[in-house]
Amino acid sequence: PPGLYRIVPAGKGSDLLICPTGVAEKVSIEREYRVKSFGCGDGYAPLLKPIAARAGDTVTLSQAGVAVNGKLLQNSKQYPKDGIGRPMPMVPFGTYAVLPGTVWVISSYNRFSFDSRYFGPVNLDEKVRYARLFWLF
After folding, report:
1. Distance from the Cα of residue 130 to its chain's centroid
2. What is the pLDDT of residue 2?
3. Which helix (H) or strand (E) holds 4?
4. N or C: which end of the chain has fewer CB within 10 A?
5. Dist. CA 26–CA 31, nearest whole Å
6. Where are the strands (E) in the chain, listed by range?
7. What is the widest separation between alpha-carbon atoms in the chain?
């Protein structure tokens, strides 16, 4: 949700600032999901996403949306196209074990969020920072 977030020590926050890699980096830049800024090595701002699943959890993607350990997350349905009709990369429906060193980031706040529904788990070895909501707008 919109607000002020503060950077916290690794593993202490419920949100993650990520510098996407691979297809997520390409799509987020081409479609201007990220603005030119500092923070990531590619010259764009990081994505701020809530952590939905951690190592040891199970993530299931289905037509209904994303479930973590059997509990369906609000606003988590995948959309095959973005808001202006461009095809989205999509993680195939199925059940995934969240492996050590990874997390899934999924916004239940914004149903159109560009998150792990479209690019899969985030490797914590990549450039990430933890954040915690400080003040909600």
Report:
1. 13
2. 77
3. strand 3-8
4. C
5. 8
6. 3-8, 15-18, 47-53, 58-62, 65-68, 71-72, 94-97, 102-105, 122-123, 128-136
7. 39
Residue 32's contacts (CB-CB under 8 Å, 6 or more residues apart) are none
pTM of the model: 0.89
pLDDT tens per residue, range 23-39? 999 999 999 999 998 88
DSSP 85: S
* Cβ(18)–Cβ(105) below 8 Å: yes
Q: What is the pLDDT of residues 57-108, one digit of tens each?
A: 999 999 999 999 999 999 999 999 998 999 999 999 999 999 999 999 999 8
Q: How many residues does the chain have?
A: 137
